[in-house]
Structures are given as C-alpha cells and as structure tokens.
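Q: Could you fold this chain for me?
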Amino acid sequence: MSRRETRRARTEQTREARAERRADRLDVPRQTRRLIPRPQFEDDTFGRFAERFARFMGTARFLLYMTAFVGVWLLWNWLGPSSGTFDGYPFIFLTLMLSLQASYAAPLILLAQNRQEDRDRVVAEGDRKDNSRAHADMEFLAREMASLRMALGEVATRDYVRSELRTLLHELDRASHESDGDEAASGARSGGGETGSAGPVG
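A: Sure. Below is the predicted structure, expressed as structure tokens.
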C-alpha cells in the first residue's frame, strides 16, 4: 500500500469511529449518508500542481509553444487541403480552445498566488518575530552598556592612581624632611643646653 492509500484508510477509520461515538449520543443528530460521495482532493497536491502550471505559463517556452501551436493551426486550416481542414476561416474552434484554456489558467494562477501569499505571510510573521527579538536584545545590551559605563565611572583609572601615588610620595618626602629637620633642631637644642649648663660649673 502506498502512503496515500494508508492515509485514506486512516481517515476513513477515524471518521467511522467519530460517527460511532456520535451515534451513541442523543443530542447529536444523525448524519444521512450521501448517495453520491463528494469528491475529495488533497489541497497540497493540487496547490503544487497549480504552482508548477503557473510557473510554466510565465516562461518564454510556454509562449513559444503557444505561438507555434496557433501558427500551425492557422496555416493548416487556411492553406491546407480542403479535405483535411477542420476549422474554417473564423477559426471558431481555435477561439473556443483558447478561451477554455484561459478560463482554466486564471483560477490556477490565482490559486498559486494565494499559496504564495500564505507563504509570504508566514515568512513575514517569522521576520517580525525575529525583529522584535533582536530589538529586545539590543535594548538589553544598551541597558547593560549604560550600567557598565556607570560602574566604570566609579572605578579608579591608571592615571588617577598614578597621580594619587605621586601626591602620597610628595607628602611622605615632605614629612620625612620635616621630621629630619625637627630631629636636627631638637639635637641642636639639646647640644646647646648641655654646653650652656656646663660653662658656669667649670
């Protein structure tokens, strides 16, 4: 069995099961069976055929084929032997065939366009979600960068640390010079006092 036949068998089984379930309920009316079953088509398969047909009709090959077909038709019915012609001068049969082709081609092209619009809508929805996600990520990164800038504003830079160390070194040097001067002054004072007190005693 092919996949299509197995799929149909499964759908028929599910329908029969649903019908049996509904038949047991009193609030659901019975469905009468149709004498002539309604034809069922797979939308996806028919849609793919419509897209291929519309794509083929939009090519130069189709135009060349149609031009050759109409040219051969006209030449055969116009210049051919009278016993072999089947469409006279007004070419009514050719007009009927072309109008029939146009009446079938227009719905197929519209179906292909509808499928393409659905596909574009899905793609546009995905793009919109991606754009909103990217916008949220950009806002989050901008907030993180602002917080990092604020945090870095409070962090000491290398030049600031160097300047503070220089000022500390200058203050230490000044303090050491002042302490050396105080020690020298106190030593001089202590030395002068000792000599002054020793003079009168001698």
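A (continued): The mean pLDDT is 80.
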